[in-house]
Specification:
mainly alpha, globular, 46% helix
C-alpha cells in the first residue's frame, strides 16, 4: 500500500491498477458472457459526466474518486479487523479485487483525447 502523497512507489500502484483491470477484462471474456446482469461479481462500468465549475454536481462528480477511495478504505479496515479476529478455516477464500480510476479532461484538452 502506497501512502497518499508518497514521493515514490506510484509506479507499483499504476501496475496494480492495470493488472486488476486486465484481469477483470480477461475473466469476463473467459466466461464469455455477452450480457451484463445486475449483481454480477466480475466486470466494470464506465461513466462520463459533462460538468462545468458552476454546475450543481461539480464537487460531487470531481470528488467521486476520493469518495470511492474513502468507502473502500473503510470497508477494507472492517474486513481486515474481522479477519484478524476470525481467521478463515476454509480452503476456498475468495480474493476480490476492485479498481477505480478517474480522469478530468479540461475543455482545452478535450480535442487531444477525441482523436
Amino acid at each position: 500500500m502506497i501512502p497518499i502523497g508518497a514521493p515514490a512507489g506510484w509506479e507499483a500502484s499504476v501496475f496494480d491498477h492495470y493488472q486488476a483491470m486486465v484481469t477483470a477484462l480477461c475473466t469476463k471474456l473467459r466466461h464469455a458472457e455477452s450480457t451484463t446482469k445486475r449483481g454480477e461479481w466480475v466486470g466494470g462500468s464506465t461513466y462520463s459526466y459533462e460538468i462545468w465549475p458552476a454546475h450543481p454536481f461539480h464537487d460531487e462528480v470531481v470528488g467521486f474518486l476520493q469518495t470511492t477511495r474513502d468507502r473502500a478504505a473503510e470497508l477494507r479496515a472492517r474486513v481486515d479487523a474481522h479477519n484478524l479476529q476470525h481467521p478463515s478455516g476454509e480452503s476456498a477464500v475468495r480474493r476480490v479485487v476492485a479498481y477505480v480510476g478517474q480522469t478530468v479532461i479540461e475543455a482545452d484538452e478535450a480535442q487531444e483525447y477525441e482523436q
